[in-house]
Amino acid sequence: MSALAPQGLTWTVLRVHRRALWAALGLLLVAVAVMLGSRWWADHATQALRALGCATDSTAGRCFQPARDYTDAIWDARHLIEYAALGITALPAVVGAFVAGPVIARELETGTYQLAWSQSVSPARWLAAKLTVPLTVTVTGTALLSTVFHWSWSTGPASSFPTYWYEPTMYASTGVVPAASAVLGIALGALTGLLVRRTVLAMSATALVTGAVALFLSQVRAHLWPVSTLTGPGEPDVRISRTWRVDAGVIGPSGDRVSTTDCYGDPSALPALCGAKDGEVTRYLDYHPASHFWPLQLVETGILLALAAVTTVLAFRILRRHHA
Questions:
Q1: 246 — phi, psi (to 5°)?
Q2: Which pTM does this prediction carry?
Q3: Please, are residues 301 and 293 in contact by the beta-carbon 8 Å criterion?
Q4: Is 118 strand, coil or helix?
Q5: Backbone dihedral region for residue 289 (phi beyond 0: left; psi -120 to 50: alpha; all else: beta)
Q6: For residue 256, which of 109, 165, 182, 252 is within the disulfide window of CB 3.0 to 4.6 Å?
Q7: Do 21 and 137 meet the contact criterion of CB atoms below 8 Å apart?
Q8: What is the four-CA torsion angle of 182, 185, 186, 188, rounded to 10 degrees?
Q9: pLDDT per residue as tens digits for the range 137-159
């Protein structure tokens, strides 16, 4: 047997879950094909419009239908990208549920783990092997997906009908956050599987917890890195497509800030600055430029990996406490 071939517990895990792994590989190929197809679709539509000497803003009657066909094709291609982003965003919860249920809880529920432990395999080594395979497969697959997604998104239909880098599903599908989220999903799956010990319940609980973490991070993401601020007598001029507007409002003579979001509701209860005119106050805009993408990504990745490390340590401690 080759030295590079999987052996021992790793081979056993691969053998037991080979159908799920083949299914995961199939889904990976489908996802990559969808993203490549989106890029091809957008390129084909662009070339077809140019070949006729038309543009989307052409006023010639002969260009009306080609321009409409182009717009429809680009929108369809964009929808493919959006579906891919949703899939990548949901991947950590799916992987975590798989680890929690079929990989961990099912063996504890049925008692089949005792066979491995009776053959000079320690509980810690058993759990490590159970986590190594999904961790390797998931991180590799997620890295590939996020790379292809970024290429397809940044050079495909997003150039004509943009989806912005800071949108929750777009942000969670690019950079290093997707892989880190998948690692946390696996760790949460292991911990939940050990605690719940029931396959379906463990899968459901893991999906809910992983989704809750993702939702929380999406709500606090804007505050993970210091914002840039523009001030002036009028509305600050920034590029919408590359700028994440976090907050905007007015600054009074005393330096007090009032956000635009606080100027809606009962007129009698609004702050006095809400009714101020230009020239009486200074307007401000807190925002993240596109250059903040990687700082935000790295900070969030650090949080995700720290949570994954703590969760993994807890999983091994619980295993040792109950099965020492």
A1: -90, -45
A2: 0.84
A3: no
A4: coil
A5: beta
A6: 252
A7: yes
A8: 160
A9: 889 999 999 998 888 887 765 55
